Amino acid sequence: MDQSKIVKFLSLWVINSVLLLLCSAILKSGIVLGNDKVNGSLAAVFSGLFLTLTPFIAHLILEKYKYKIRDLRIESVFLIAVNSIVIWVIKRFALTTGLGVSNILLVGFLAVLATFTYMMANRYVGDLLNKK
């Protein structure tokens, strides 16, 4: 595996975990991290890992079936849909993951934020790695 892909993955994992912590701190009644089995920071790390794995796996599946998304808008809508499904699944297993989301609008909001951070991290971390 290429070292730049590992750096992108790890940086996106950190960004997603911090994003979940910030959203939990700002929207206290809507997004809850942690429960009696998993503390808040560990829930952010686990949920951030699942959110980070999602776009990478989705792109691998698209490559396997030789489908290439060329338009940035179509790719972002695709990733928002995939992230919404993954956040909903993470939310449904709240006893294990520790992430609780109160309604579907906040799931969509988190999916849009996760997609935006993926797009920005993909662009800027790649640019930083190419400068060296």
Describe this structure as you would to a colleague.
The protein is mainly alpha-helical and 132 residues long. It has one domain. It has five helices and two strands, in the order αβαααβα. A two-stranded antiparallel sheet has the order 1-2. Helix 1 packs across helix 2 and helix 1 packs antiparallel against helix 5. The longest helix is centred in the last third of the chain and has 28 residues.
Report how far the terminal alpha carbons are from each other.
19 Å
- The structural class is mainly alpha
Order of helices and strands: HEHHHEH
Task: Give the helix level as a range of percent.
Answer: over 70%
Can you tell me the overall shape? globular
Number of contiguous helices: 5
Count of structural domains:
1
Radius of gyration: 15 Å
- Please report which band the strand proportion falls in: under 5%, 5-15%, 15-25%, 25-35%, 35-45% or over 45%: under 5%
Number of strands: 2
Show unreliable segments: none
Q: What spatial order of strands do you see in the largest sheet?
A: 1-2
Query: Main β-sheet: number of strands, strand sense, barrel status?
Result: 2 strands, antiparallel
Q: Could you tell me the mean pLDDT?
A: 89
